[in-house]
Write a structure and sequence with these properties.
globular; 6-stranded parallel beta sheet
Length: about 400
């Protein structure tokens, strides 16, 4: 069998590597720099497993720029996986799915016999709308459950495989993912359902994670306000096996590729459904940033240093990181901000100076705020403001 994967992000590339261990895979992207790196066995992302597999494994994998060889890539493919970005559009209040529809249009001009699997995160009911719009039934949604920096690992050791289809083609694709994983196949649960149900699994799963983060953040806000030990309270709460000792480390809010946009999209889908909790989860993230910002502003610092824009250790992503919302709130009060982020190559980040000399950054900062603490700051602990209790992501 031949596969084409459209979109070389964490999702698309990790799937391409997984499948190309056994099958021919063409991975397609508009960015020639990414494509060139893959063809030279270099990962475009920080991900240990992706780096190792590209460098050391024999993979039947070719990167292709979307404007080149596109006919060949689509016409010969038995399965085409769409993993293009679907960022949340604040104006429309929904995911921007234009990349999916353009890709589908291009595919169906060339190949009307392939099985099309959507891995991009999409609104509820969207797959069914696509089937009707393009008069093509072999379009299925299969959500991904990947962590930033561990995308290939999470494909090799999947928590579960969810397929938005119950026919032979859907089961065949799910079995391929299962067989190529390193985890014992008998330990991988596979779930088959309608694509709309699979879309709901993705959005509700991520919203539940966001809810848990928001809960422990609000617990921490209370403890900080009344000067009691957040750690002792969390330890006591989390010792209940029904609650568990995980996803409980306070932060400046949830952020990253998935949780902010997925929670807002789910709330949009609730327009005609009574709800309190889903809206509260979205609102809680903004409230937490307000609380953190006010805590910093109350200290009346002259210069606030932002230690790292990335969401967590090992990630190279600082898109929609929670600390950016805190930055904006502090800057609105006229307080100067400087940034330490080695992954930022620009001299300014949202008009704040980027200082990549760590010692100079620490010296110039009146107070340093860090979503996650680090040994880099061990010599200036008196300057550091963080809500990181357990020193883990």
């Amino acid at each position: 069998m031949r596969f084409s994967v459209v979109g070389i992000g964490y999702v698309g590339l990790s799937l391409s590597i997984l499948i190309s261990q056994k099958y021919e895979v063409k991975c397609i992207d508009i960015d020639p720099i990414k494509v060139n790196k893959i063809n030279n066995k270099i990962s475009p992302f920080n991900d240990n497993e992706i780096e190792k597999y590209l460098k050391n494994k024999k993979l039947n994998l070719e990167g292709i720029v979307s404007s080149e060889k596109i006919n060949e890539s689509y016409s010969n493919a038995d399965y085409i996986i769409i993993a293009t970005p679907t960022d949340y559009d604040i104006e429309s209040g929904e995911f921007d799915t234009s990349t999916i529809e353009k890709t589908l249009s291009d595919i169906l001009k060339i190949n009307k016999s392939s099985i099309i699997i959507i891995k991009s995160t999409i609104p509820l009911g969207y797959t069914e709308k696509l089937r009707n719009k393009f008069s093509y039934t072999d379009i299925y949604f299969s959500p991904e459950f990947l962590r930033e920096g561990h995308a290939l690992y999470d494909n090799l050791y999947p928590s579960r495989i969810v397929m938005g289809g119950t026919n032979e083609q859907s089961k065949n694709f799910s079995n391929i993912l299962s067989e190529l994983a390193l985890k014992d196949k008998n330990e991988i649960n596979q779930y088959f359902m309608s694509s709309t149900e699979a879309e709901a699994v993705k959005l509700f799963a991520n919203t539940h994670l966001a809810m848990r983060i928001a809960f422990f953040n609000e617990l921490d806000s209370y403890c900080e306000k009344y000067n009691i030990s957040t750690r002792k309270v969390i330890d006591g709460v989390s010792s209940d096996p029904r609650i568990g000792n995980f996803y409980n480390n306070p932060s400046f809010g949830y952020g990253g590729y998935c949780l902010p946009k997925d929670t807002m999209q789910l709330l949009k889908n609730y327009e005609k459904v009574p709800n309190n909790l889903i809206k509260a989860i979205v609102d809680a993230n903004s409230t937490r940033k307000d609380f953190i910002s006010e805590s910093i502003i109350s200290k009346k610092p002259k210069i606030v240093g932002i230690y790292r824009l990335i969401m967590k250790e090992g990630s190279d992503n600082f898109r929609t990181s929670a600390i950016q919302g805190v930055m904006k709130r502090i800057k609105s009060k006229g307080i100067k901000i400087i940034v330490y982020e080695p992954l930022c190559r620009e001299k300014l980040f949202f008009n704040s100076e980027v200082i990549n000399d760590l010692q100079q950054f620490k010296k110039n900062s009146t107070i340093i705020i860090a979503n996650r603490n680090h040994i880099d700051l061990s010599d200036v602990t008196e300057k550091v403001y963080t809500r990181d209790i357990f020193n883990i992501d």
